Amino acid sequence: MSRFNVALCQRSQRRIYNPNLKAVILKNFGGPEVLRFEDLPQPKPAAGEALIKIHSVSVNRTLDCIVRAGKYPVKIRLPHVLGADPAGEVVEVGAAVATLNVGDRVAVISAAPCKTCEACLRGDESLCVDGKRIGIDRWGGYAEYIAVPARCVVRIPDDTSFAEGTVITRHFPMAFNLLVDKADVKPGERVLVMGATGALGSSCVQVAKMLGVKVIAGAGTDERVELAKSYGADLGINYRMHDLANEVMRLTDNQGVDVVCENISDPTLWPAAFASLALNGRLVTAGAHGGGTVNLDVKRLYMRRLRIIGAAGTNPADVEKALDAARERKNPRHHRSDHAPVRSSASAQDCRTESDRRKNHP
């Protein structure tokens, strides 16, 4: 499991009829110390919902740590329960739920699209801006149980752990969205993946190899470059030690790459990643933890017929592609799996934040 998605494994054996549950509550924004492990009333699934006993949920840099710090661009109503991607076992279903059964092993897709906007009606739910997100707009999975819309719940393969289910349904669908839906990657093309050992980056490396492309991994240390190669990358560049654009041109006979898969938005790295594109290349991006504001060479943009494509969210088809790959054991490969009980989420976020401070960028 990725170092950027530390599974918080809930091992409580409380019975379903217990009127209370334990959850990690956010009542004030701040550092990890503001999180409190407290009792809450147990949720009851409404019509169209399922109640899930949570076995794993990730610590997400943006959707947990930045939200907790009060720096997320969307207003969060307090008190709040974090946790965007829980996985666990269905213990109760509400009325009109025919797709799930008690005992199903499942993962929760965080986005609950509105199903009424133009984007949803044409099947492109990743473009829905009116939906509600679990862990953002409604309470999330830092708890023993969660009630969620049944349409946000997917079954995971029997030989997939709950922690793997959390990772597979969080990052691999986005990787398919970036590379297939947005960049339209074709077999034989060259793809540069930035932050190639991060949660999303490592998923993009693996998905790109499934698509039959040549992958160049960009990472911040030699160790991480080698790690990305173990995920399937063909070549690698330490962009903290070498000139990224020059190295890409050297490795591609001065042609550049057809696609840059970017998820950092570091102003010191983004220009070189952009300059690595071949004629008519595409840069797809979903992430801004490196700063978010970058310089753009507009002359290069139009003279080389380049495209920059932003993406957020996923479509059900992307989730199915990720689950199909899991069934075929094509994913995930992650170099570390850290587990802690949910009551320790504050210390887990503290470790995650400190890790970011030390490494600066993936």
What does this 3D model show about the protein?
With about 350 residues, the chain is α/β, with parallel strands linked by helices. The protein folds into 2 domains: about 5-155, Alpha-Beta Complex (Quinone Oxidoreductase, Chain A, domain 1); about 175-310, Medium-chain alcohol dehydrogenases, catalytic domain (Quinone Oxidoreductase, Chain A, domain 1, Alpha-Beta Complex). Helix content is about 30%, strand content about 25%. The protein has helices at about 60-70, 120, 160-180, 200-210, 220-230, 245-250, 270-275, 300-305, 315-325, 345-360, and strands spanning about 5-10, 20-25, 35-40, 50-55, 85-95, 105-110, 110, 130-135, 145-150, 155, 190-195, 215-220, 235-240, 255-260, 275-285, 305-310, 340. The strands form 5 sheets. A 6-stranded parallel sheet has the order 13-12-11-14-15-16, with helices on both faces. It has a 5-stranded antiparallel sheet with strand order 9-4-5-6-10. Strand 11, helix 4 (about 200-210) and strand 12 (about 215-220) form a beta-alpha-beta unit. The chain is globular, with a radius of gyration of 20 Å. The chain starts with 6 loop residues before the first strand and ends with a helix. The model is unreliable at about 1-15 and about 355-360 (pLDDT under 50).
